[in-house]
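Quarterly update from the structural biology core.
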Amino acid sequence: MVDPRLSPDGKLEWTGSEWIPVGTQTQHASGANVFTQQKIVDSVIMGNLTSQTIVQNSPEDMAKAMVMALEQIGFVGNIQSSNPSNQQMSNVKNLLKASDEMASRGIHIPGPTDLKLGNAARLTGRHKAAMEYYERALKTFRSEANKSGEADALINIGYVSLGQGEIAQAYADFNNAQAMKHELGEANGKADATLAMANLALAGNEIDQAEQLFTQALSIKEQHNDEHGIAIALIGLGNIMESKKDYAAAQLLYRQGLMIKKRQNDLEGEAIILSNLATVAEHLGNLSDAQRLTNQSIAIKREIGDRRGEAFSHVQLATQSKQRGDFVEAERLYKMALKMKRKLSDSRGESDTLNLLGVFYEEQDKFAEAEQHFNESLAIMKQLGDRQGEGIALFNIGNTNLYRNQLELAGEQFEQSLRIARTVRDYEGASDALIQLAAIAEQRQDMPRRQTLLKEAASVLRSNNLPVTGWLEENGF
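Predicted structure, tokenized:
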């Protein structure tokens, strides 16, 4: 007779052939080979995989079932970079519950599987759960003296820290992972850490450093024919070129990334890049191309059930309608996108859409409606702790007061926006705030202060390798 072993939560005991609730007496034939169906949940595994997953009561078999489910959902590599669809989000929620149940029964989950679980949790907005999976993976890898796995875990922990605004912690994790991969001689793994450092630099508006790191990682990924990594680097470089307003270069990089996503049959990645290309087409003034690309992106997002992505594309269509002068259609699409964002509880997306609606009303001199939407956006950004978003909302509120000649109030709001922009290194935001403060100085007939502020606005851009365009350029600054 095997002495019962309690599960960590004390609710179940191991009899030698299966787990049972504590206090239940069961009899098993000696030597019986007991099989059970591992029902992780039909919607998680999708298709007919559930009926194929009959596993023995062993940690190895259960871990295999978990990996199969993760791969079926689409979380394959240790480092993922895409936006999950609603279907994936629902599937992930069920799968994470199943993994927690397995862990409570004392079943050891391998480190690589925990990394995939963490990816699934992180990319569906469950950042606390993601950190728990990554830290469990880190502990497993360290107990196994698996330095490569430890570095992978640190990279993912760093991404969570970065998403929570803990820049110093993210840097430490990425830097340690990079050193480990270098020590192990894993050039491709070191490139993963370099991509992480590049995203860190991009988030901190350190554009030149980000560009250098993305370029360095791209070279290594190309040497190793790592198409997933190549695509991440290309998209990152495309983002940088777009931020520099070099739209032709951004377009080329996005198209290269799109070719890879099509080869990989990565529909989500394809839809995302099509949206990026649509934005570039807007900047280039090719509205018919922008609308075509957006509609292609929407078609894919609907096919894969990506409601969040679809809402974003409706915002793009609204902007394109506004540029064509169809304000009725633009307002309808903005409101539709806002409704979708609220239904999805996408607070950040809701805030962004509120800002766009505010600008839309502001451009039609509907300042009360504009200010209402900007204030709603500001409240959400404060709740999320998004300082850059807070600064943008304050800048927009300042504009509504400037246009209504409420100069003192507008000045206070532009000053607040400027302080935040400097804190988060939003150089374009800082330049914009300085320009509006110069406009207030002009209305007060303080021309020396106006000149000083405009020179500073241009200097902020030039000193951070950002182009001085538009009004500043036209007026010799």
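The CA atoms of residues 239 and 455 lie 27 Å apart.
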